[in-house]
Input
Amino acid sequence: MNNSIEKILFSEEEIREKVTQVGKKISEDYKGKNPVLVGILKGSVIFMADLMRAVDINCKIAFLSARSYGNNSFSSGTVQIGDNLKSSLGEDIEGKDIILVEDILDTAATLYAVREKMKELNPASIKICTFIERNIERKVDLKPDYKCFDIEDGFIVGYGLDYAQNYRNLPYVGILKPEIYTK
Output
């Protein structure tokens, strides 16, 4: 598996430090509140687990399935969100502070669609927390409120990020060799 990685971008230690910093910031910003961290499946699982342990205030968690990549290295342009958002969350979010937790903010199409759909459930607020933000021009206006890292380019995997459902279990983030995803 490691032979598929061209270069390690963020080590396990760097990730731990950044996630701890973001967790502290969320704790400060939501002191006295009980936010709901909503992880976007599947990529956010590892980040979400570490982030919620770094948050030292009461918080709830929920998960939501949304995707636009499938098994490709590029977005399909079509965002798929669970049929019934309210029941998918397993949590009534009306009047609650929501933090959407995402693995990577790329085109932002998926997260934008999720945020707009969640607004229909009348939360008190919705903020965005992403593990990585890819600095590209987007068709939608969406910026994260919290983030760990920025990248410019390269197809990255590890720490929850995948290619065709593989590489999520790497403890670091690395650039996947192009010959792996251009076959």
Notes: The beta strands are 5-10, 36-41, 60-67, 80-81, 97-105, 125-134, 146-151, 156-157, 173-176.
